[in-house]
Amino acid sequence: MFRFRIPETGLRITILLAISAFATAQESPSPIETASSTPEQIPSPSPPASATRNVQLRVIPPPMQGTISLGIFDSNDKLVRVLHREAKSDNFTVEESSLGTAWDGKNDAGEYLPPGKYRARGYMVGKLKVDDLGKVASPPDSASDHVSVRLVTNPLVTDTRSVVDLGIGFDGKGSFLKTMDDLPLATINESGNLTRVVIEKNGEKAADLWQDDGSKVEHLRVSNIDKLIGFDCGFFELR
Q1: Structure pTM?
Q2: DSSP 3-state of 89
Q3: Strand, helix or coil at 90?
Q4: Helical H runs in 6-112?
Q5: Of 54, 114, 167, 226, which has the fewest beta carbons less than 10 angstroms from its beta carbon?
Q6: Is the dihedral of CA 68, 74, 77, 79 positive or negative?
Q7: What is the DSSP secondary structure assignment for residue 97, as one 8-state letter?
Q8: Are 99 and 92 in contact (CB under 8 A)?
């Protein structure tokens, strides 16, 4: 586990951004003249889509053991790239006093995004405990698609929200906790073929969830959902 020196005065998050971008363009070839007296114009190729863009991110994460989920958001606060999902420190470049990573300017579909303002922010997520409470006929009517959770806060960072709405999602790999803007935070269960998942708060530090695969409904309890610390890198320009 990568260790940081943490001042006794409290938690501290320092995020340094170094952004660099450059693009290459290809010159259009000269028109090719045919045997006729009128030269034929050959369309010029488009500039290569593989323009080199590299946004360097260096993060000193919150002082808590766990995994890091980091997303890139556009100026409208829409998630455009899940840069890290449940990542450990060895998924980053370990530097003297920070963890380094990079964004290539692409979205999750592998497409280059237009120049403009973007934002990197995410969460440090502590280890969750998941208990299987067995099969039930159906989830309760009071269950929904999200719960509100009070985060572990940093007194030195005033713009980090102390309460966050956590959603519950699923895909072909199973169910997972996520933010309401769709940043995946932690895997809950690896059951495939799910058709519905709902969640309900159980005290301040736990939640019950029910997942339906069309043939059965499983009841699970997730503890330690309050072990979350948010961090925000702020806005930067993609050129």
Answers
A1: 0.76
A2: helix
A3: helix
A4: none
A5: 114
A6: negative
A7: S
A8: yes
